[in-house]
């Protein structure tokens, strides 16, 4: 489902005499349906960079990144948008808050975007918000004024609303309390059980051990850093 073949990346620092930094060198990895793989490695090893390359936020200079057969490296922007809408989800710790949109609509939006009826999308959004312990009195309000933890949980609800076949999780349990951390781990288990291929960064080692089937140490692909 997620296949990286000989993927490499450099950053060119245009404001520093066009210095070129090699960050990722020759990554080949593959994640099957129903599998969760953790990216590990020291700070600066390139975990977030690799995740952003897979999502198509960062350009990739060499190799192929195939998601359900579509090569993100070469895809047209409109194909990347379609891939993100239907196939590839991304859950970070932070919600991009749009003013005035009620929380229920924020969570239901990814489902509406793939053609789910308003009624069904709202039912799923309600189910997730309740599961993630967002008080019902907040559902009709915009999350703009919510606490950091509440915004994070709204973001997780939104990220898990549509059953994406492939998912990228960037520290999804960071700074959650024990009860909500459990909810997120159960959502990851459910996604695996329905066949999602998942790549995640988890500094929380217990969470990583619990939901991940394998670990890939990104340091081995970092030029100049010993694995
Ligand atoms: N936009 C950028 N421009 C230049 N260099 C960058 C950019 N983004 C990341 N880097 C560099 O790439 C390397 C990898 O960074 P990255 O954030 O991917 O590491 P990480 O493994 O996710 O670290 P952490 O665990 O601290 O989040 C670092 O040396 C960083 O300075």
Give the key terms:
lyase, 227 residues, ABC_transporter-like_CS, 7 helices, five-stranded parallel sheet, AAA+_ATPase, globular, four-stranded antiparallel sheet, ATP hydrolysis activity, alpha/beta, ATP binding, binds adenosine-5'-triphosphate
- Main beta sheet, described? 5 strands, parallel
Share of helix, binned = 25-40%
Ends apart, CA distance between termini: 26 Å
- List how many beta strands DSSP finds: 9
Bound molecules: adenosine-5'-triphosphate
- Secondary-structure-based class equals alpha/beta
Description:
With 227 residues, the protein is of the alpha/beta class. The chain is 36% helix and 25% strand. The chain has 7 helices and 9 strands; from the N terminus they run E-E-E-H-E-E-H-E-H-H-H-E-H-E-H-E. Strand 7, helix 6 and strand 8 form a beta-alpha-beta unit. It starts with a strand and ends in a 10-residue tail after the last strand. The mean pLDDT is 93. The structure holds adenosine-5'-triphosphate. The site of adenosine-5'-triphosphate (ATP) has 11 residues, from strand 2 and helix 1. Belongs to the ABC transporter superfamily. One of its GO terms (molecular function) is lyase activity. InterPro entries: AAA+_ATPase, ABC_transporter-like_ATP-bd, ABC_transporter-like_CS, CP_lyase_PhnL, P-loop_NTPase. It comes from Yoonia algicola.
Summary of the model, kept short:
This protein is α/β, with parallel strands linked by helices. Helix content is 36%, strand content 25%. Helix 6 links the parallel strand 7 and strand 8.
